[in-house]
Every structure is written in C-alpha cells, then in structure tokens.
Amino acid sequence: MKRVVPSRPHWYHHLWLYSLFFFIAGYFHILFAWLGLISFLLPLVFAVGFGTKGFCNHYCDRGQFLRMFGGQLGLSRGHDMPGWMKGKPFRYAFMVFFFAMFGNIVYTTWLIAHGAGSLQEMVTVLWSIDVLWHWAYAGGTEPWVAAFAFKLYSFMLTSEIIALALMLWYRPRAWCVCCPMGTLTQLICQTKSGQESDA
Predict the structure, then answer these.
(1) Residue 79, by phi and psi: left (phi above 0), alpha (psi -120 to 50) or beta?
(2) 134 within 8 A of 91, measured Cβ to Cβ
(3) Cα 165 to the chain's mean position, in Å?
(4) Rounded to an integer, what distance in angstroms lies between the CA atom of residue 56 and that of residue 36?
(5) Residues near 84 by beta carbon (within 8 Å), at least 6 away in sequence
C-alpha cells in the first residue's frame, strides 16, 4: 500500500496568526483595529488589479484561521450548508447589509469628526450588545480616530463570531461561501473577465 506523504504547509497557512494578533492587540489598544482595513483593501487590490480571488483563496487570515481550527484541529462538525445560504439572493443581500453597516461606521465617524457626535469607548457585538471597552484607549489622538477604531473592531469581531459559528456547525470555511468581501470580489472578477472577453 502506497504511503501518503502530507504536503508541506505553505507560508500563507500561518496567516491565521495575524487574525489572532488583530483581536488580541485590539483588546489591549483599540487603535490596532485600524489594521482591519487591510482585510477590506487587499481583496479589492487582487480583484481590481489582477482579476483574481487570490487573496480569498490563499492570503485571507480569517480563511486560514478557519482552515486551521475547523479543519486541522477538527473543530468543525462538517455539516453541509443549506442551499439558500449558498444562493445568490442570500449572498447578495448579506453583502448589501454588510456594506451598509460599514457605511454607517464611516458616517458616524464623520459626524464625530465634525462635532456632531461623541466618542463612546465600547464595542458592539452582533450589532446589538454594547460592551464597555474603556481600558483599550487612553486618549492621545483625535476622537474620530478612536471612534472609527472602536466601530471597526466591533464590526470585525461580529463577523468573526458569525464565521466561527458557521465553522463549528458546517464545514471549516463555510464563512467563505457567503463572505461579503468574497461575493464582491467575485463580482469584480466576473466583470473584468467579461470586459476582457468583449475586447
């Protein structure tokens, strides 16, 4: 019987450590939450610049986190996702909702920057549960800078909780099926592919 030799992990398989670093660092100092913008910008760079989902497939720290804990450590129950979660109506609706929430973050940050709002040192979990987070910020910067960090950390933490819940019950990278950034970059790649074929 032929012995199967496991393949050596690629360097990007260790990017789950970045995801861990992000949440731990943000817990102790909220301004680290600004690093979350990397997760928004890099997928767009790959999709717009190269017409690929290379970031989602290989370099997404959350995807690698889910692969590591759900797949390699066996924490996933491995159930199949229901068809409606894989379908376009749900994925597109979730994408619209996701970016509407992000737009609200930008808008409320703009209000604080223009004196129409005040900084609240708390993290909102699942868009509804407010948790005081005052130890993570000691001042020293503009209120809007800190406000954006608190809101972005809340946003990232909420989506991480949803991703982990999906991982535990469904397949390890179930989140990737309905990830709003993945849906957006797929649309961009399809549009670019169509434009190139028409040229």
Answers:
(1) beta
(2) no
(3) 14
(4) 15
(5) 90
CA atoms within 13 A on the CB side of 35: 15
Q: Is the pLDDT of residue 1 over 60?
A: no
Q: Coil, helix or strand for 132?
A: strand
Give the distance, in angstroms, between the CA of residue 195 and the centroid of all CA atoms in the same chain. Answer: 28
Query: What is the token pair recorded at 83?
Result: 């068809």
Give per-residue pLDDT as tens, 115-142: 888 898 999 998 888 999 999 999 889 9
Instruction: Tell me: pLDDT of 2 over 80.
Output: no
Is the Cβ–Cβ distance between 181 and 91 less than 8 Å? no
Give mean pLDDT, residues 13-23: 95
pLDDT of 128 reads: 86
Residues 150, 13, 33, CA angle at the centre, nearest 5°?
A: 10
Q: Which two tokens stand for residue 26?
A: 């943000």
Closest by CA position to 91, among listed 103, 101, 99? 99
* Calpha distance 61→55 (Å, rounded): 9
